[in-house]
Fold this protein.
Amino acid sequence: MIAVLGLVVGVVAGLLVRPEVPAVVEPYLPIAVVAALDAVFGGLRAMLDGIFDDKVFVVSFLSNVVVAALIVFLGDKLGVGAQLSTGVVVVLGIRIFSNAAAIRRHIFRA
Amino acid sequence: MGTEETPGGENRSRELPAEVQGPPPAEPVRPAEDAAPEQDEQHQDPDGKAPRSGRQRLAEGLWPPRVTRPQLIVALLLFVLGLGLAIQVRSNNDSSALRGARQEDLVRILDELDDRTQRLEGEKQRLEDQRTGLENSSDQAEEARKQTVEKERQLGILAGTVAAQGPGITLTIDDKKGSVEADMLLDAIQELRAAGAEAIQINDVRVVANTYLSDTDSGGVRVDGRKVGKPYRFKVIGKPQDLEPALNIPGGVVQTLEKEQATVTVARAEKIVVDALRAAKRPDYARSSSQ
């Protein structure tokens, strides 16, 4: 419940405060958000499976974000940034969908 | 997503005890879960109860709210996620599509903008040239119109179709004996013209280029076919200092007329008004050849 509250508070704060994102980080923000979403879905699934561990969640969350941003950064440097970010989004999307399927089976038993 | 699932999870947790026995459906998919890195730890249940279903765990996590370390950590991370989400959504809605655009896209957009700017600059230049041309031509038309009006006025004075005023002299010839004839008046007119007279009027007849004078049988004079009464009053516009000596030179107009027993007076005036008019006559045959 506290976690859900945290998400809500974060969204509201982002909409209200309108913080300025540094220009260096800006291109990686969408990818980082998608990666974080993937980590959250993974964490939710793990919780439903009964194997949730906060330490693992924190590490996976941060590493997901960092690795996704790193891949896009590398792609930008190599000149294939657009393609690589598409690839990252596709992979993360597939994982989100498979995790969502597992969560669905837990909750709806179907 | 958590907010959406909250009511569903709660509702289902109420009816859950009836079907606790059901096999945990998560089992078949568990091997495929290598994507989620949270599988190294097997248990987080603090109490060693019987294994519960995913729904139960979700319901427990959601209600009642417990302030535990994992909850706080997850809340912190989710806060960060929500923040990033909101920022990203807002910056996408910000209508500044350029924010977060890639370098090559920006270069392309910049090129397009440069091209467009050049095109528009060219068009602007063309339109400004056109405007300058139009302004010049309208200026010229206005100038030509002014000159035409001015010229019309000058020609009107010459042709006698407009009134004129200016410095000049009045020449009065009082012919008591009736000895003054048309040729003497014509001599006076020629002398005045030679001295630079610009507009002449005898009594109420304007003297112009094609004015003619003739004697009448009764000893008077006709100007342009109209009989003018005595005394003959010339109103002349011109330079008085030129006109008066021209009439008074020895053997000139004044002396000749005085020889004929006529009384001649010449008076300078600062303002002479020549207001006798002639109708403009359209020539029947002659046409302007300047067009």
Summary: The radius of gyration of chain B is 57 Å. The beta strands of chain B are 164-174, 199-202, 205-207, 213-215, 221-223, 226-228, 232-237, 263-274. Chain B touches chain A through 67 residues (CB under 8 Å). Residues 1-49 of chain B have pLDDT under 50 and may be disordered.
